[in-house]
TrEMBL record:
Name assigned to this protein: IF rod domain-containing protein
Extent of the signal sequence: none
Lineage, broadest ranks: Eukaryota, Metazoa, Chordata, Craniata, Vertebrata
IF rod domain ranges (all copies): 1-102
Superkingdom of source: Eukaryota
Organism encoding this protein: Anas platyrhynchos
Coiled coil: 46-80
CC annotations in GO: extracellular space; keratin filament
One example GO MF annotation: structural constituent of skin epidermis
Cross-referenced InterPro entries: IF_rod_dom (IPR039008)
Length: 159
């Protein structure tokens, strides 16, 4: 009886091993399938991540290019502004010289404000030396209502 139990136990152990060996390939196949699926999902996620990274890098490069263009345009505008500031300073200097020249002619008994075509007059009413020796109303160097003859310039301050 002990021998029968021992034989039965050996037989069951052999069956268990056989069953285990027969289950292993099935489990291995399932595990391999799960591994393949996970690898596919992982590679898909990597591709998506790389695509998004490329899109972001492209957007960043486009933003850098736009910034470079804006800076270039800004520099051009600054150059134009500088040229205009220089031109304004030159005309201002010419106007001050003309004002000084006409003022000295007026003191010597010469002609006062210019009424010739192309002439420039300052201040209100067109006189260079208005009340109290100032150059027109409003306390501005070029007056507040500067008028110009034909082809002349007008520099009013508006206040």
């Amino acid at each position: 009886q002990y021998q029968d139990l021992q034989n039965m136990w050996v037989n069951q152990r052999e069956q268990l091993k056989n069953n285990a060996f027969s289950l292993c390939p099935l489990q291995n196949a399932e595990h391999e399938e799960a591994i393949k699926d996970a690898e596919q999902r992982g590679s898909s996620a990597v591709r998506d991540g790389q695509r998004k990274l490329q899109e972001l890098e492209n957007a960043l490069q486009q933003a850098r290019d736009n910034l470079a263009q804006i800076l270039h345009d800004y520099q051009e505008l600054l150059n134009v502004k500088l040229a205009l500031d220089i031109e304004i300073a030159m005309y201002r200097s010419l106007l001050e010289e003309e004002e000084t020249r006409k003022g000295s002619m007026s003191e010597k008994g010469g002609v006062g404000a210019s009424s010739e075509p192309g002439g420039v007059s300052y201040g209100s009413g067109g006189s260079i030396c208005g009340e109290g020796g100032s150059s027109g109303g409003g306390g501005s160097k070029y007056g507040s209502s500067g008028s110009a003859g034909q082809g002349g310039s007008s520099y009013g301050s508006g206040g």
